[in-house]
Amino acid sequence: MYLYTAQEMRDLDRYAIEEIGIPGMVLMENAGHAVARRLLDRWRRSATAVVLSGSGNNGGDGFVIARRLASAGWDVSLWIAGSVEKMSQETRTFYEACIHAGVTGEFYDSSQKQALARHLEHSDVVVDALLGTGIRGELREPVRTLIRMVNQQARGFVVAVDVPSGVDTDTGAVASEAVVADKTITFAHPKWCHYLRPAAERCGNVRVEDIGIPQQAVHLSPPSSRINEPSLWQAYLKPRSRWSHKGDFGHLLVVGGSRGMLGAAVMAGTAALRTGAGLATVAVPEGQEQALAAQVTEALVWGWPDDGQGHFSAGFPQDWEKRVRRLKAVAAGPGLGRFDGEEEWLRRLLQQAPVPLVLDADALNILSKDPSLLRERRQPTVLTPHPGEMARLSGQGVKEVESSRRRIAREWAQAWGVTVVLKGTYTLIAFPDGTQVLNTTGGPALAKAGSGDILTGILGALLARGIPEKAAVPMGVYLHGLAGQQAVTSTEHSVLARDVIAAIGPAIRPFL
Ligand SMILES: NC(=O)C1=CN([C@@H]2O[C@H](COP(=O)(O)OP(=O)(O)OC[C@H]3O[C@@H](n4cnc5c(N)ncnc54)[C@H](O)[C@@H]3O)[C@@H](O)[C@H]2O)[C@H](O)CC1
Ligand SMILES: [K+]
């Protein structure tokens, strides 16, 4: 499934209308019909509805909905923002059809405030068709008042048509007012605002309805972003052959686990093995080797020159060149800590690890001192920042990162030629070629220390198996989210990182 911007959706619409020859009116009728059908399914007996329509095509959908609900026997009260003159041809046609079909519509002005408030309070359903993807600039009256009234006065079920009025389709920003919906019914494809905060919090439950735009129109010029789904990577997951040996499944090196943070490296290494790595080696500061070996029996242990107190030092193992030849991928960061000479250390790792590299946690914080270190990289590099780490990397505030997730992840990936996995409720993956994949698996159970370390291990393992990063990264993020969901046995509060690791196998299984 693709993820659309407002412009990409307009282009798709235009293609369907002008090149394929489906009249715009048919698309609008289909859109309105789809919403009405959902409402009629839900309220089988007749109900009361307030339909609020703007003068654009979103309002046109609203007129179709009002007509169809009324003809099914609902008591419909229609309120319009704007005027007939402002309506597009399709919208105007459906406005007239609505009136001819006997629905009474009012062009809202402030003298009707009381009357509208009464309707909003007493209606089972409120349909928000004021503004869709065509919003421009700050809200004008009377739309602004109408949106505020919906939020303050509606007692019934609020359905947003396409997007909640007042949200920006592409950034997920909200205007001075934006409808808070219980459900959003969108057309043909999901849009960015359905997944980006704060807009996403106003959408309620999002449902995508087919309105008859042929698939061929999508394939001709696909948008640059999509929702993460197994079809992107499932071909790389296969049952193991009877003749397999561990060398077939790659050797991952996890670098981290400084004193006091050993658990992070343990979790990354264990998650890698659960994901199917043939071999996982965990490299910890020399003073930590014994403690590590006691915690993870399945991984190999390497000592890394330490500072005498169980933390990393700027040095590298003497035989690094020889050791690195055995590796298929490196994941650095879980429990790495900060240390003297860290920048030089990272520069060397970036240069002298000629395999796919995952950077997480403190490896990202070190990188944020000088992102130009990435210029030295020739092999795939995956960064897995949470919003705080992304803020440090990009030199911006966390709020700025959160309000421009889509742009920041894409710009960073393109500028430095790396894959950015910007973590969050909907983790966003941005590739160096400008394409993006938004992940929808996962849940609140993963909001806990250790989750990031597990993701790092999973991604490292998949890259070590030689799966190309365009498949490995979405696969890893998807499976990590699924494991997080499946690890919940009693409540999301009490899930431990180890439960998530144990759930990796059950998450993978259906895809083999
Ligand atoms: N394939 C599809 O997805 C289809 C979608 N349809 C619907 O069409 C809208 C987009 O319609 P458009 O006419 O481009 O824009 P809007 O109706 O969202 O908005 C234009 C309308 O709103 C007024 N306006 C704009 N900005 C503001 C503002 N800041 N304050 C107040 N008023 C504003 C402007 O003057 C216009 O009157 C899409 O979302 C779908 O719902 C079609 O039905 C066909 C298929
Ligand atoms: K709307």
From TrEMBL:
GO biological process terms, semicolon-separated: metabolite repair; nicotinamide nucleotide metabolic process
NAD is among the record's keywords: yes
Catalytic activity, EC: 4.2.1.136, 5.1.99.6
InterPro entries: CARKD, Nnr, Ribokinase-like, YjeF_N_dom, YjeF_N_dom_sf
Cofactor note: Binds 1 potassium ion per subunit.
Binding site for K(+): N58, D128, S165
Keywords: ATP-binding, Isomerase, Lyase, Metal-binding, Multifunctional enzyme, NAD, NADP, Nucleotide-binding, Potassium
Family named by the database record: Belongs to the NnrD/CARKD family.
Protein name: Bifunctional NAD(P)H-hydrate repair enzyme
